[in-house]
Amino acid sequence: MASHNAGSRAKRVGAIVPARFRKDHLLPYAMVSPAVAVTIAIAVIPLIYEVWLSLQDWYMLKRPQPIFGGLINYIAVSKDGALWAALGRTAIWTVGTVVVEIALALPLALLLNRNTAVARAGSALILIPWVTPFIVLGFGWRFLLDSDVGPIHQILELIGLAGGRSVLTDPAGALAAITFISGWKGAPFMVIALIAALKSIPDELYEAAEVDGAGAWAQFWHVTVPSIWNTVVIVGLILGILAFYSFDLAWIMTKGGPQDGTAIVGIQIYRAVFLDLRPAYAAAISVVMLLILFAASLAVLRLRRSN
Amino acid sequence: MGLLRVLATGALLAGVALVQPAAAQTNVTFWQFFTGDTDVKAWRDTIAKFEAANPDIKINMELVPWSEQQQRFVTALATGGLPDISMLGNNVVAQFQATGSLAPLDDYVAAYEAESGIKITDDMWPGDQGYYILDGKIWASPIAVETRALFYRKDLFREAGLNPDDPPDTWEELRDAAKVLSEKGAGKYYGIAMPMSITYNTVQNFMSTYLGYGARMLNDDGSCGFNTQEFKDALTVYTDIYKTGGTHPDAPTLDGDTLRRGFADGNYAMHIQNASMLKQLQDEGASFVDEIGIAKIPAGPVNRTGFLGGWPLVLWEASQVKEAAAKFIFFATHGEPLRDMAVASGFLPGSVSLAKGAPWDAYPYPLFVEQLADARPYQYPSQAIAEMGQLEVDTIQKAVQAVALGQQSVDAATTQLCTTINEVLAR
After folding, report:
1. Alpha helix positions (H), B275-364
2. Is ipTM strictly over 0.90?
């Protein structure tokens, strides 16, 4: 009797409630709603707050409470020569980091792409720079580049890339050095991704190429490279985004110097918030960075599709 | 079953009631910047004494390392969560006072003076008054002060043919001695561990040079006052220490801790440092500790001015328990509690009357205590400015670094420095 009543009630509800609101249709939405809620909480709300903040006039020293300032911070950003110079350095740093990552990772991945105990151990050991904190790496590299006792400095001096003092004392040399270190730290991530991509290439492709008379170089260029290209682009994009937002390494090693030679945008944002007490201005810089990064990412993805 | 449940609930409530304090306590949150075991213990002892004398007040100490305190304060200012009281660098008291987030201590000072008979301002160092008394009100109560003197190795002086009983007394003599010592050291050691990089230590040393040469950071109208011959002469003599080889070739990128470590390791013949340097050498058993001489900071043609470091306790405006918090501030920054803490942690007390007594009347402290009378803020003789927290970080250091590395002339670096300072002041 009870089940009969329940069944007829369900039929009545089914007749009244449109199909798209029925339980079986709502279930998928219910399943994804926690993920959506988390995304809104950790990404969308902070982004909205950041945009709101960037439209405030808030220099804590002169105006302890924010008031609406319209585009005042964006106008200041457009006129801030030091910031645009920092953006230029950040572009060099970002592209340089990804180039170093690919240049170091590709040969290593090819070397480690074999099923031996040494290769497996090497794949694990190679992660050390990736998992080591920036603070440790920063001080370690400062020692390596020390003009008195640094072994890397001795090598650089030997090949004429450094004089009697550390390359970190030269603006261009310092930027090149920390860009290399940034790429070196990120390379293991690229290595692991490339090894996975290499392992997914069917052996038949190499056999077919060999039958067609392709040598080792031709096989690499016409089989390996096209097969791993998507991985290189996507992982390169991720690592590039990480590099673009960097702050730690440059701050630890050079504090943005000498002569702002390594002052990348992450450092400018840090200075704006914590030293200059201008959080609204820092938010405006962040929004501009986000737009630049969005445009660059779209361009890279379009390039990938066109290839 | 029901009876059992009732009994269990009753027992639980009774237990809770037993652990509740008899009277409601006032909780005071305190951010403390030193994380070393000795310092933390010294503060815990002070807090225990205070709580024993004031059972209705509970001090909750949170450790906020020096390296993170600026981020924590700025974040708390923007989003909430400031403590009731905290330490603060002496140079940023004006910054936070300008944001309206500090509470003046005057009312509590009056009450404390009436109760203790101590005149608070008479017990502050002259330089500290410049930092803590703003707009005619008292915003901080000093715990510690520091000034820096010249530590030098008598054995290396003898080795280089210099008189160990006649250490450099002027900046020119320091530059020349550093050069001679470096030449004698021939890469084994350098003349002086002298900061030239973008680090606080650079401006903390260099301010003694420019004030000694009669230069001043701010004109009477509040604009940058560095564009003078006095400042240029000071910048020249300071950076000449690097250019003439008197210090490490990487000095423009070495931080203060690295230089201090280098002196302790015997890699330098001289170093400008605070009194704790000697204790460090003694604690580490440095082989040359008996050969250490200490002299006052070199003088310029106009005067001898020491760096004035220090940290006070401040009361935050957002505090809901200001009276209890202020009580702790004056307890910890005066009298026996401060002396005990200063002895345990090894700092010079910010109370003049304490610093002039035992144990600071024994070597090496009297020289430092004497120099404190002539230790000044960076912007001396001008009033403290809110922007000092920004200017202190990298503006003056950039000029020093650029000239030392030959990337800018003294004139160009000075012009750019003043442009930057004026831009910051005009915001």
Report:
1. 276-284, 322-332, 335-345, 352-355
2. no
What distance in Å separates the CA atoms of residue B208 and residue A143, rounded to the nearest whole number? Answer: 30
Instruction: Please indicate whether, in this complex, the C-beta atoms of A169 and B248 are within 8 angstroms of each other.
Output: no
Residue B190: both structure tokens together = 């350098």
* Percent residues over pLDDT 70 in chain B: 95
B-chain residues within 8 Å CB-CB of A147?
A: 248-250
Chain B's closest residue to A60, CA to CA, is B99
Which CATH superfamily includes the segment(s) B149-307+387-426?
Answer: Periplasmic binding protein-like II (3.40.190.10)
Decide if A257 and B250 are in contact by the 8 Å CB cutoff.
no
Per-residue confidence (pLDDT) for residue A2, from 0 to 100? 46
Domain boundaries, chain A: 81-306
Query: What is the per-residue pLDDT across B334-378, written as a single tens digit (0 to 9) for each?
Result: 999 999 999 998 899 999 999 999 999 999 999 999 999 889 999
From the candidate CATH numbers 3.10.620.30, 3.40.50.10320, 1.10.3720.10, 3.40.50.2300, the one assigned to the domain spanning A81-306: 1.10.3720.10
DSSP B206-249: HHHHHHHTT--SB-TTSSB---SHHHHHHHHHHHHHHHTT-S-T
**Buried (b) or exposed (e) across A10-43, using 16+ Cβ within 10 A?**
eeeeeeeeeeeeeeeeeeeeeeeeeeeeeeeeee
Q: Does B185 touch chain A (CB under 8 A)?
A: no
Q: Write the DSSP symbol of residue A41.
A: I
Q: Which residues of B touch A59 (CB under 8 A)?
A: 427
Chain A contact for B2 (CB, 8 A cutoff) = no
Chain A residues within 8 angstroms (CB to CB) of chain B: 59-62, 64, 142, 146-148, 164-166, 168-171, 174, 254-260, 271, 273-279
Low-confidence residues in chain A, pLDDT < 70: 1-21, 307
Q: Are strands B268-273 and B149-153 parallel, antiparallel or unpaired?
A: antiparallel
A171 Cα to chain B: minimum distance (Å): 9
Q: Does domain B23-146+309-376 have CATH number 3.40.50.720?
A: no
**What's the pLDDT tens digit per position in B225-283?**
999 999 999 999 999 999 999 999 999 999 999 999 999 999 999 999 999 999 899 99
Nearest-Cα residue of chain B relative to residue A76: B427
Q: Is B172 exposed, middle or buried (0-12, 13-18, 19+ CB in 10 A)?
A: middle
Total-model pTM: 0.85
Domain ranges of chain B: 23-146+309-376, 149-307+387-426
Closest residue in A to B76 (Cα) is A274
- The nearest CA of chain B is from the CA of A152 a distance in Å of 15
> Using CB atoms, which residue from B249, B252, B387 is nearest to A61?
B387
- Closest to B300 (Cα-Cα) out of B378, B215, B368, B408: B215
Is A59's CB within 8 Å of B427's CB? yes
